[in-house]
Amino acid sequence: MKRLGFIGLGNMGKGMALNLAKAGYPLTVHDIRPGPVQELVKAGARAAGSPREVAENSEIVITMVTSSPHVEQIMYGDDGVLAGLKKGNIIIDMSTIDPIVTRRVAAAAAGKGIEMIDAPVSGAPPKAADGTLSIMVGGKKGVFDQCQPILEVMGEKIIHVGDVGMGEVVKLANNLAAAIAGIGVFEGFLFGVKLGADPKVLYDVMSASSGNSWILQTRVPYPNVIPGSPANEDFAPGFTADLMAKDLGLILSAAEATRIPLLAGSLTRQMVEMARAAGFGDKDWSVVARILQQMAGEET
Predict the structure, then answer these.
(1) Domain of residue 248, residue span
(2) CATH no. for residue 67?
(3) Mean pLDDT of all residues in 262-273
């Protein structure tokens, strides 16, 4: 089996790395927090003190960090991944970042004879833990084929979507559609409840009608309507408002650069920013519903 490295053991990355360890891959891990590193060590992984040390002990390095600057930080410099990998090695970046940064890192890697694919994921931490993520992969088909067995340990739906950077593009397009759909669900419930409808009745009707969506099935904005909704636990994440704001910022930046008007996307980002300004950045992004409720004079 290929020797793997994994950098970034956060809410998503830890579960993904644990699945690789359980599958028997020789695994070297790194994170700035010691807690998840020790958890991986107990599962059979080896701890490394830097991204470079991870790379020096790996044939394929997987990265799962928060933002474009974080990816650049772990890739470049004397202690970076690119300093430790050898010609013919592979990088799989599973972070959700600016596709322009992805392509820039891939070009730097190619200059050293290192291949790279981008493979951002869709799904919450429970899906990362049980290996059922959806993964959108950009990069050379031959490199994708080499990495597919590894990706299948972490996800159940693996889709090759084009050249490097296209994984990010497709993932961000999905998040844009989901965020906009979310505002529609939240406002639909607000309208119905304010005019006297029972939230459970609204859910039953929408589920069987044209208002049905993945967002409806996972993020009903009133508690105790469906199991698993963040609203049941005071909007515990899930996918935080901070992260949704980050993704919408990436989307709108790319749209501006390519002169794509995104009217609904712009409004949705402002709603998410209102939630963050109210101190809800670390709650699930569906806490936007609470902002809408407050604006309408509902007790929350």
Answers:
(1) 169-295
(2) 3.40.50.720
(3) 97
